[in-house]
């Protein structure tokens, strides 16, 4: 029920400095108060000056309106800014009793005799009944809202300025609150955070970014904090809405609760940590068993050393993949990890990319064998020796191919060996069998020159990469003892 005292006080309003409308001022306040439509006047600052009983009822009969009359002020602001009338502007707002009202607003600027704008007069027609009937009015929008209200996922809409104009019950449940329509902007959450926990201002949230740049975003993650303190990770899918001329008129956003997925990721990381720990223990056990088995049985010390070094190379590849979550690895990091024991005597050149776990392990073993061979027999066995490792990626209609060029110089003179050693046979077989590529090893007088070529596919960080299939025979080549 409307408070008669508040009505009388608001209707009385300040009259001395503001004459609302030439036709309206000649009517008695009692007659205006009996009109079946809401009538309100505002000064040139947009402040409410006078309103009748119907306007108060539309706004919920608040006892102290002040400047808080919901989205009606947005229409007034537009009239004051453009100095033009607005016709049939549909607005809606939540009433104090929890209900939602729909109003058609018509607003006109008011001018003095000298042409100065003095304020705005607004007429408000209640169309709530029309909006609640799907067979009259604008059934498309009403039916859409009815459908959205039934959706189990959080969905809300904003205008072009980011003001929230609609949200379904699932969105209110997700936020843990009901934001005020046409007042709050961009998102109904009280607080937002980046995935890492750093506070995220509302004006930088996914919906705000989507409206700012007029582009849809997919899968942007953030964290919402509810009024009672719990935090919910979510994925946002904001999409701008456009009129027939392509101008952004608002946006719709869907919020997907990804709490369960995050918990699954945590469980997977925990399991991966346990697995990595057990594999490292297994490698250590294999090393200990091998050392004890071959010790003192007529096996040369350098043979035992080679076996242990190869085991360490495998262990380093495993550690690097463990740090990357066994997803993909950075090519440059793999190369630097394998060649770290050689104290920077190998110069590396090339742009990095992501490679698969299979490629990581195979390449780690290959580079270890090349570096170990250079240390025992090649360029790194001399103080003046040098090795340059350079890689390139070539692309053609059949796919992309990576080529690694290993070139030694400054070491002892190289001659073609009489037999193949295990190390360089391992290089050839790993490239051919594991990576479907070719290892071309040439024994030039100034040093070994090895070209490794194998197919690759480009992947973004955090995605799995599988080498492209390519049938390529390993060309027979000579190798040195290893």
Rounded to an integer in angstroms, the radius of gyration calculated over CA atoms is: 37 Å
How can the largest sheet be summarized? Answer: 7 strands, antiparallel
**Low-pLDDT residue intervals, each spanning 5 or more residues:** 1-28, 63-68, 133-137, 460-482
Q: What is the averaged pLDDT score?
A: 77
The helix content is 25-40%
Q: Find the count of extended strands (DSSP E, 2+ residues).
A: 19
| H/I helix tally | 14
Helix and strand content put the structural class at: alpha+beta
Written account of the structure:
There is one protein chain. This protein has helices at residues 4-12, 22-25, 29-33, 53-58, 72-82, 128-132, 139-150, 169-175, 206-213, 259-294, 301-323, 331-339, 357-376, 422-435; strands at residues 38-43, 48-51, 86-94, 100-111, 117-126, 154-159, 164-167, 191-193, 220-225, 231-236, 239-242, 248-257, 329-330, 346-349, 354-355, 386-396, 399-409, 438-444, 447-456. The protein has 482 residues and is α+β, with helices and mostly antiparallel strands. Strands 6, 7, 8, 9, 10, 11 and 12 form a seven-stranded antiparallel beta sheet that branches. A five-stranded antiparallel beta sheet has the order 2-1-5-4-3. Residues 1-28, 63-68, 133-137 and 460-482 have low confidence and may be disordered.
């Amino acid at each position: 029920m409307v408070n008669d005292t508040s009505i009388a006080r608001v209707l009385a309003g300040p009259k001395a400095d503001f004459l609302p409308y030439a036709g309206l001022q000649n009517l008695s306040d009692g007659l205006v108060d009996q009109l079946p439509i809401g009538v309100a006047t505002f000064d040139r600052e947009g402040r409410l000056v006078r309103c009748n009983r119907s306007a108060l009822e539309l706004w919920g009969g608040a006892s102290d309106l002040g400047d808080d009359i919901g989205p009606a002020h947005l229409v007034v602001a537009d009239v004051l800014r453009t100095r033009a009338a607005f016709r049939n502007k549909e607005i809606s707002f939540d009433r104090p009793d929890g209900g939602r009202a729909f109003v058609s607003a018509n607003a006109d600027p008011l001018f003095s005799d000298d042409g100065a704008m003095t304020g705005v007069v607004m007429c408000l027609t209640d169309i709530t009944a029309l909006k609640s009937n799907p067979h009259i009015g604008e059934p498309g929008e009403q039916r859409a809202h009815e459908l959205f209200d039934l959706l189990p996922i959080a969905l809300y809409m904003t205008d072009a300025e980011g003001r929230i104009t609609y949200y379904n019950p699932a969105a209110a449940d997700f936020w843990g609150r009901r934001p005020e329509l046409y007042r709050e902007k961009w998102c109904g959450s009280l607080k937002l955070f980046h995935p890492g926990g750093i506070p995220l201002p509302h004006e930088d949230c996914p919906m705000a970014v989507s409206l700012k740049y007029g582009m849809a975003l997919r899968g942007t993650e953030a964290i919402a904090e509810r009024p009672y303190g719990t935090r919910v990770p979510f994925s946002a899918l904001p999409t701008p809405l456009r009129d027939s001329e392509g101008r952004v008129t608002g946006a719709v956003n869907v919020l997907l609760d990804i709490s369960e997925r995050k918990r699954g990721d945590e469980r997977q990381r925990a399991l991966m940590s346990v697995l990595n720990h057990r594999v490292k223990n297994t490698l250590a056990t294999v090393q200990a068993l091998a050392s004890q088995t071959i010790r003192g049985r007529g096996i040369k010390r350098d043979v035992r050393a080679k076996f242990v070094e190869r085991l360490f190379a495998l262990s380093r590849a495993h550690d690097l993949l463990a740090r990357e979550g066994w997803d993909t690895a950075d090519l440059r990091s793999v190369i630097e990890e394998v060649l770290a024991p050689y104290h920077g005597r190998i110069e590396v050149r090339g742009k990095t990319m992501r490679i698969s776990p299979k490629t990581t392990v195979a390449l780690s073993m290959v580079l270890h064998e090349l570096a170990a061979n250079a240390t025992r027999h090649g360029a790194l066995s001399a103080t003046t020796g040098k090795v340059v490792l350079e890689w390139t990626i070539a692309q053609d209609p059949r796919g992309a191919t990576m080529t690694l060029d290993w070139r030694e110089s400054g070491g002892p003179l190289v001659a073609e060996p009489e037999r193949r050693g295990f190390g360089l046979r391992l290089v050839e077989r790993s490239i051919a069998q594991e990576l479907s590529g070719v290892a071309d090893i040439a024994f030039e007088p100034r040093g070994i020159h090895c070209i490794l070529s194998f197919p690759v596919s480009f992947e973004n960080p955090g995605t799995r990469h599988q080498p492209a299939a390519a049938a390529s025979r390993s060309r027979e080549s000579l190798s040195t003892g290893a």
